[in-house]
Amino acid sequence: MNLLLLSPEDFFAPEMVRIADRRHRHLREVLRAGPGQPLRAGLLNGKLGSAHVVAQTAEQTTLRVALTELPPTPAPLTLLLALPRPKAVRRLLQGVTAFGIKRIVLLNTARVDKSYWQSPFLAQDALREQLLLGLEQARDTLLPEVLLCPRFRPFVEDQLPQLAADTLRLVAHPASTRPCPSAVDGAVTLAIGPEGGFVPFEVDLLTAHGFTAVHLGARPLRVETAVSALLGRLLRL
Known about the structure:
Layout: E1 4-6, E2 11-13, E3 16-19, H1 22-30, E4 38-43, E5 48-56, E6 61-69, E7 77-82, H2 86-98, E8 103-107, H3 124-138, E9 145-149, H4 152-163, E10 168-172, E11 188-192, H5 200-208, E12 212-214, H6 223-234
Helix pairs in contact: 2-3, 2-6
C-alpha cells in the first residue's frame, strides 16, 4: 500500500479519520505503523497529503490527516479492452488504473468466451476493489470509470463515435504494417483485442470508424503484456 486511500465515511471530524477494515490491518500487520508515524494519504476523488497515526487498537486505527495536494494528472487515453479471462481481469484493472487510465471499456468480441460475462469478478463491488488497489499502488485518488459492453457492433456503431471524438484512434493488430507510435501528444482511444486478436470483421468495423491498425513488432504477446507495452509506448510517463 503506497497510499492510504480514504473515503468521506472514514471522517468523524474535519481532519480525523478512523478505519477498521483491510487498510487498518495492513497498517498494523504489514507496515507496522504505530502512533506518530507519518503516511501518504488521499481522499477518494479528492486531494492527497499526509496522515499521522494518533491511536491504534487491535480493531481500528485513528489518524489525523492534512490533504492539500492535487492528484496526478489523468492519462489522456481511453482503453477499449476485449474482456479477458476472469482471473486476469483483476490484474489488468489494477495495472491499467496504476497507469492513470480513467475510462476503461470491457468489450465483447468474437474470441471472448461468453461465460466470462457471468463472472463474479464483473460485479460492481469486485471491479471497484481492483480499481482502489490500483489507485493505492500509484498514489492516485481519481477513480476510473469502467463500462461493460457485451455487444460489439452496437457499441462501435452507436457509442464509440462520441466516446472517441477528437482522439487519435488506434487498434492493436499484429497483421498491421504500421508500427505503434510513441509518446503521443493529445488524447488517444486504444482498442486491444483478446488472446488471438480481433477477427477481420472487428478490425474492419473499427477502421471504418476512424481507427488505425498498429503493431508492436513480430513477437505475439499475451494480453497482459501487450496492454503494459502499448500504454508504456503511447503515454508520456
